[in-house]
Design goal:
This protein is of the alpha/beta class and about 375 residues long. It has 12 helices and 11 strands. α3 links the parallel β3 and β4.
């Protein structure tokens, strides 16, 4: 592609992103009672985007509920509002399974119908909310027990996300793959709404950006990302505190768990693979969240083209985290494993037992991961 052609594509993406952000802001502006849900096993961008959007909407006088199937992780539970997150879907009822106790692949696009009081949805009287929003969820399944087809369709819906594999599952879809994080998109949404950010909102959004860029180190970190972070600091977010909470506050059990994954790391052709069992977590006293960032450490190895970390779940399946630092595309392999994500950071899930799971990951990597030209 010539430089001129690349500039044209970038400009088209910027225009599409601007339209998507405007559509999202319009949907939020019309709603008065908003449900916000994010993905299972949440990270800093998931919790930060859900809480950040909640703070933004509450400053406009809207009634907001934030939900997640799983409890916030250690690096997100400190965020303002995290203790008020519930485990119920937009129907207002607790999730059918799981949940937690509470203190109370394409160009960015906005498509489909704008939320309305009717338009094929149940009327406002039939649902507790007049807008349901999914943030940082690459597909409906990532909402876990919070999502059911009938309750999702009971009111207008909005999806705000940055995963390239997200094809859209809302009435309005604000999907911007060029953004470093969902929190970066939400800063643009706040601007479109004309909302000055509180320190609480800024802190939540900065947490998401710092988390998903691994401290501004990923290829998705752009000049716009750095400018967004600067604005959030100016609005009251403490970058040093956020970085400390996200990267420098790990329990000993988590460090020992990482050591176990490193001991098992083996090269398999151009890839490196490791795994963690439930007994590893239980024996070391580690929380499920303690396994999430380990794949980043594995990805610092010089030799492999990509790395995979398998983590056993209570249902006998294995979560698969994929990372690459070279010019490769992990999304096809993640899709083969029932997941998705970004070119250099993706994931999926595969059935056990461990030998079968390892074999499935090896096959997906060998068949679907290729170096970029």
């Amino acid at each position: 592609m010539t430089a001129a052609a690349a500039r044209a594509v970038a400009q088209a993406d910027e225009r599409a992103a601007a339209l998507a952000v405007t559509a999202a802001a319009d949907a939020l502006r019309r709603a008065e009672r908003v449900w916000i849900g994010t993905h299972v096993d949440p990270d800093g961008d998931a919790i930060g985007s859900a809480l950040g959007l909640a703070h933004i909407l509450r400053s406009l006088g809207k009634v907001v509920t934030v939900a997640c199937q799983d409890a916030p992780p250690r690096d997100g539970i400190w965020l303002p509002g995290a203790h008020d997150i519930v485990a119920s879907g937009p129907d207002g009822h607790p999730a059918a399974h799981g949940g937690h106790a509470t203190a109370h692949g394409r160009h960015p696009a906005a498509h489909g119908r704008h939320p309305t009081a009717h338009g094929g949805h149940a009327t406002a009287a039939a649902a507790p909310y007049d807008l349901a929003v999914a943030v940082d969820a690459g597909d409906a399944g990532r909402l876990g027990t919070l999502h059911a087809a009938d309750t999702w369709a009971a009111q207008p819906t909005l999806v705000i996300d940055h995963h390239v594999s997200n094809t859209g599952f809302g009435d309005v879809d604000c999907i911007v793959p060029s953004a470093s994080s969902t929190c970066e998109i939400l800063l643009a949404v706040a601007d479109a709404l004309g909302v000055p950010l509180t320190a609480e909102a800024a802190t939540c959004l900065l947490c998401g950006i710092v988390t998903d860029t691994i401290g501004f180190r990923t290829p998705s970190t752009s000049a716009a990302t750095l400018a967004s972070a600067g604005r959030l600091v100016a609005d009251g977010a403490d970058l040093a505190e956020v970085a400390h909470r996200v990267f420098l506050s790990r329990p000993l059990a988590g460090l020992r768990l990482e050591g176990r994954a490193l001991d098992r790391l083996v090269m398999d052709g151009p890839f490196a693979i490791s795994w963690l069992s439930l007994s590893d977590f239980e024996g070391l006293g580690a929380a499920p969240e303690d396994g999430r960032g380990i794949v980043q450490t594995l990805a610092t190895a010089v030799e492999p083209l990509a790395v995979a970390l398998l983590r056993e779940r209570h249902d006998g399946t294995f979560d698969v985290s994929l990372r690459a630092k070279s010019a490769v595309d992990l999304v096809p392999a993640a899709r083969a494993l029932g997941g998705g994500g970004h070119a250099l950071a993706a994931g999926g899930r595969t059935p056990g037992p461990l030998p079968a799971a390892l074999d499935a990951v090896r096959q997906a990597l060998a068949k679907h991961v290729a170096a970029a030209e």
